[in-house]
Design a protein that fits this description.
The structure is a homodimer of 138-residue chains. The first copy, chain A, folds into 2 domains: 55 residues, 2,3-Dihydroxybiphenyl 1,2-Dioxygenase, domain 1 (Roll); 61 residues, Roll (2,3-Dihydroxybiphenyl 1,2-Dioxygenase, domain 1), CATH 3.10.180. Chain A is α/β, with parallel strands linked by helices and 138 residues long. A 4-stranded mixed beta sheet of chain A has the order 1-4-3-2. In chain A, strands 5-8-7-6 form a 4-stranded mixed beta sheet. Helix content of chain A is 26%, strand content 32%. In chain A, a hairpin with a 2-residue loop joins strand 3 and strand 4. The longest helix of chain A has 13 residues. Chains A and B meet through strand 1, strand 3, strand 4, helix 2 and strand 5 of A and strand 1, strand 3, strand 4, helix 2 and strand 5 of B. Strand 1 of chain A pairs antiparallel with strand 5 of chain B.
Chain lengths: 138, 138
């Protein structure tokens, strides 16, 4: 079993709201778009982000844990400079992201800030000067 | 803002249990391993899976939503044949995965089954003959 992630699937409550945010707001392009079911977005070499209608997700995977709080997962979009962190957060804010945080210098040497998609999934916009951070830059 | 996911970060309750499952059980290799803090595993071209201690995650991102049910996210590992789905699920079972499902022929034409990691994060092992599925194969 080689160590690959091929799809990242998020359960979304309102697929139309997700489509508006990711496609119209953030300007991403769908690779697959089936209204009422799923929107798939290529997010890397052989990696696809799938926004899947929550009812369909629950029917196949099981009931989702509810309750107040954030989902136990974040997705990071890494960039090459601290200035780019601020630019991307500004883009997210203009796209209607909620919970747009102030970028923060982290104790490990990075500079990152978060924003939330319509379901509260947190995206981290990150400048990470470590080797592992540099390894993910285009 | 180009459409990339650089890191997928999962909040894990017991990092030692996660390390045993992913590294010793599934045989994956850590790119970064800081006991008590984080284990990072390369899972694609410029994509890293980060297993982050839940307390540290919550201190930075916020309290995680609890409650019974599955996390609202799945990660898929796609393979080229239906037989490979069964092989990978058997490997996961041998590694101590819980909730190892029976692979199922899906109405959209695929053949997939799930297993759970120590925190209940679901991995889908998938044969997907559609163009989007073939696009993620190595």
């Amino acid at each position: 079993m080689d160590q690959r992630v091929s799809f990242i699937t998020l359960a979304v409550r309102d697929l139309d709201a997700s489509r508006r945010f990711y496609l119209d707001g953030l300007g991403r392009t769908a690779a697959v778009d089936v209204p009422g079911e799923v929107v798939m977005i290529s997010v890397g070499e052989r990696v696809v982000l799938s926004l899947w209608d929550e009812q369909a997700f629950e029917a196949e995977v099981g009931p989702v844990a509810r309750g107040s709080g954030v989902p136990p997962v974040t997705l990071a979009h890494n960039v090459a400079t601290e200035e780019a962190v601020e630019d991307v957060l500004a883009t997210a804010r203009a796209a209607g992201a909620s919970a747009v945080g102030v970028p923060t210098r982290r104790e490990w040497g990075g500079y990152t800030g978060y924003f939330a998609d319509p379901d509260g999934f947190r995206w981290e916009v990150a400048y990470n000067p470590d080797p592992i951070g540099r390894s993910v830059l285009p």
